[in-house]
Amino acid sequence: KAGVTQTPRYLIKTRGQQVTLSCSPISGHRSVSWYQQTPGQGLQFLFEYFSETQRNKGNFPGRFSGRQFSNSRSEMNVSTLELGDSALYLCASSLEAGGRTEQYFGPGTRLTVT
Amino acid sequence: GNSVTQMEGPVTLSEEAFLTINCTYTATGYPSLFWYVQYPGEGLQLLLKATKADDKGSNKGFEATYRKETTSFHLEKGSVQVSDSAVYFCALPSGGYQKVTFGIGTKLQVIP
Fold first, then answer.
1. Using only C-alpha atoms, what is the Rg of chain B?
2. How far apart are CA A55 and CA A49, in angstroms?
3. A55, A88, A103, A104: best mutation site toward chain B, by most B Cβ within 10 Å?
4. Is the pLDDT score of B70 beyond 70?
5. Which residues contact A96 (CB under 8 A, 6 or more apart)?
């Protein structure tokens, strides 16, 4: 089975721009979660989607948004980029099982905001 | 909500040394507990898990026991290798569904 894929792997943007990141989960996985990883804050949960519905959301401003398509692929969007948005953005997919199943992570998208 | 406290690194060990990375948790009920590992330039991958109290998860020589008396899930390995150099994260579900809380991560460096 193919693993979780994320595109692009690297991205450089300028303050004020917007960016869209893409995630394709493992075939058959219906839950997709997004995390932001930074050296100072570690891994922080952004949001989780299941069957095109956002079920959980972390403590991030409204500039961070996401969606999930009928084939379970997911995108996240960050508008009006700030320098502090520079981070590794990780996507993870899992089977639906109430939090007892493990998550499978993609390699991440490294976003640099200048 | 549930939370996890993990020892901060970095941890530097010589090859074949014994490894312990401490992890304690605060949780309602008895959620599953996980250890993930992140190798340089990669995403996280599950190392091991335990789904109930007294369970022992193990993989690749690593072990961790779910201890409800001490609310701990310490990661151990009897003899580390250079290839074990990575960042290790303790994690547990929190807030329902697939929301997962991760520890701060412990960087392990194994020197020959």
1. 13
2. 6
3. A103
4. yes
5. A30, A31, A50
